[in-house]
Task: structure prediction
Amino acid sequence: MRLQLRGIILALFFLISGSVFSENQDGWHLSTFMGGSMSLPNRLTIKLEDLPDQSINAVYQNKSFSDSHWWIFRLEDWHGENGQGFELIHHKVYLANTNDIVTYLSISDGYNLLYYNFGKRYGDDRFRFGLGVAYAHPDVQIAGRPLFFQKGLTGFYLGGPTIQFNYERLVWDNDIYFVTLDTKLTLSYIRSPVSHNRREYADVPDIAFHVGFGFGSKPKAFNQEGIAKALYFAPLVYPYLTGTYVLGTGLVPAGSHEEE
Result:
């Protein structure tokens, strides 16, 4: 895994060139991130109708570099030292300590976190506070039942609120692109269905640390003429290319995780 991450870093530096630490620019900054997350143990409760309700001191795995890997998309409008904008985190949780009743549980087609961020910039450092909502795409296996899993958009559920505290450090930039190291703490709550019976559900709070290596474009990239304007969107291919050619994963899951 270390060799894979080094390959990502080296690829970025070969793809971009220019003077280090150029001026800040007002306007829309687009960036994407690759990295991973770690969820802390937490209380998982599951409401069932024909079986005893479950209360589990849940231990989670995040599997950030498998199947649909962890990634972040961020679009923000900066003016001077202040910025605001949107961020989407494709976060994943897998229950490690299953039992005889809950034989499989993951929210791994996304424990997706959508934020509206408020940022402050101090030189090469950026701090953010984000308010948002969490969307769940669950895979659940209850003993004696078929796997509960719905493909596509029908499998996403608005789960609950989330907040984040973020610190980002500029590592490299020129007039068009930038590279950053991003860290964050997210605190989230999701109520997710565990079957087609609406009276059955899981309460899945999550406290997680995230670290990502980001590649972004500045407003000047979009202000270029002709086909050069498309270079503004170059960060969008970073998670795809890294997943496809470095990790052997994808942006979206191939199917239910119980089938793996």
